[in-house]
Description:
Layout: H1 2-25, E1 32-39, H2 56-65, E2 70-74, H3 78-87, E3 91-94, E4 109-112, E5 116-125, E6 145-153, E7 159-166, H4 172-189, E8 195-200, H5 208-215, E9 224-226, H6 227-230, E10 255-260, E11 265-270, E12 286-291
Parallel strand pairs: 1-2, 7-8
Antiparallel strand pairs: 1-12, 2-4, 3-4, 5-6, 6-7, 8-10, 9-10, 11-12
Amino acid sequence: MGATLFGFAVLVFSLSMASLVQASSNDPGPNRLRVMTYNIRFDNPADGVHAWPNRKELVASVIRYHKVDIIGVQEALEHQIQDLMELLPGYDWVGVGRNEDGGGEFSAILYRSSVVTVKVAQTFWLSESPNVLGSQSWDSSLPRIATWVHFVTSSEERELFVLNTHFDHRGEQARLESARLIKEQISKLANGLPVIVMGDLNATSEQPPLALLSDIPLADGRSLHDGFVHSIVPHHGPTSTWTGFTKIEADRRIDYIFASEDLPIHYHAILTDKLEDRYPSDHLPVLVEVELKD
């Protein structure tokens, strides 16, 4: 009996793992998109074995294997984005650097050009002067930005508004005001389109910036839903997104994907793909699959 039960358990486990692999490797349906947020860590030679040249192929492999359609990256320097473009044929990108001269870190949006096309794309600064390049306000330690895109799907010509951002890592007021500014900008720019907001928000879910994003509706009355909470299929993976490259640190979910309530979230995952003992970045990527309704 013991051997029979063991064999049954192995069979169930094998089928469950096969289902996970199938869910990850199959293409989504014609009205579905896979969206990822990924802080890829800036190219810092002081990271040693974890420096960008030693992990860029793995970052690209994660995106490629999970067949992601739209990716919001944070901390990316322009040459890192160009590296990913070389490793990811069929992808393109939009964005500008956060510094006054357009350099520095990008909160760029990458996308599969066979799946979606760009209608409009812009970047604004998380400050009291969002149209002033390089501006910063409140207690922000650095200039911070948000890049947004009005996408049109290639197959059904459905439209979608996607925003990617990276909140300040030190300024508490800056994070709160950045959340407020983003909601104001979405209300002006999205024109009623289904909305995705994603990024490294440097705050956990119980802190004020996240409450402001999720608890207070947009000006048009729609709410933003945290995919971790509102996914139709329960969340897959750990409940934290910070690794420091080597170990998942508990209670540090600081990377998010939100979708407006008219954009169903079918799957939500925090991915733990790694090579031997190394993660591709000091953050784990977050992946959702959403459905664009008629």
